[in-house]
Amino acid sequence: MAVNAYKKRLDARIMHIKVVINLFILIILSQLAACTIVPGQHMQQFATQSSTEMPVRENNETILKKLDIKTINAQLIVDLEKDINNRSLGPDNVANHYFDYRIGANTIKGVPAKEDYSQYRVGARDVLTITVWGHPELTIPAGEFRNAESAGNVVGEDGTIFYPFAGVVQAAGRTVEEIRDDLIGKLSTYIENVQLDVRVAAYRSQRAYIVGEVAQPGIQTVKDIPLTVLEAINNAGGVTAEADLRNITLTRDDKTYSINLLSLYEGGNTSQNVLLQHGDVLNVPDNVFNKVFVLGETTLGRGFGIGRARDLIMNKGRLTLTEALSQGGGLDQETSDAARIFVFRTALGNSEIFHLDAKSPDAFLLAERFPLQPRDVIFVDRAEGIRWNQIIAQIQPTVTLLNAFDGSLKVQPFRSFP
Prior knowledge:
CATH architecture of the largest domain: Roll
Number of domains: 4
CATH topology of the largest domain: Outer membrane lipoprotein wza fold like
Distance between the termini: 22 Å
């Protein structure tokens, strides 16, 4: 009897051991199968290529290819800094093109050909004030209840005005000096030594339209004082905090030009301060495309029990990897694997993957000199120990279920038997 009881206990213990072994084999296999039972996202350990094929352009042909993972090291930083277009004010910086790429705009990169400023030319619906000295009967009085605009001569849609003794006078397309000389010539037949003055009392013929991310969008009139891009924006109350200064568009006739106002503000490039003309549409777009995304194990949202992703606006089109990680909450010192920080890039259809090993804090010296591009995705991977704890947490309900299913089977994988 004692032998049979001992044998039963031994068989039970052997069964316990088999169950435990099977469970741990399951764990090992799951690890080898890319952690399929571990929730969340993870990059394969020691991977040198992406696990996903991406469309890339090679030899003017689009092919599917796994991307090489580039290490962010000193040599990579040197190579990046050799290209001036990786700098914020580089003429071919990616941020200068992303607006067109995303919305499919067909803008001309650059500004219209520079035109010398010429005197204002009168147009239809402008109001002129004509004063003939010594002949008040020819001058319409303004008076207390009539301002110069309401008392003046309105240029008709045909571009002409009517003036006593002079008859019909062509006004549109002329400067006030040319109109004055024409009137003097016609009135000299009736008046000796004619002295008259012509002024524009109201500018109503030429308009430019300011839209987008400005404080007061609307219509602005083109007057005798030149209306430039900078003055038009200032007249509109300046740009808002959401404005993309690098991708302002100017539509003139059937062409759309790209204006980089940041290059004017910070680089002194006065060629960007274009003179506006009648019918111009100046659009200040928002910076919704100039974002980067921070995902993974950061401290943001820890107080809520979950980690939250965050998108960051690239102020003036520039942001470094260190700045993005800092604004994204910084690395979670309890759950993150600082040696596995990745940057996924698909700007303008060119896909790349970069890897930063920040196990040593001085790696952030490299990250501070790594310029990000719009739509970059930063991913901070999870530490291996955290994954192990997740696996145990997932298996524990199964162990509990086995115990409940067969009360005689006390599966305790972490208990040692005497």
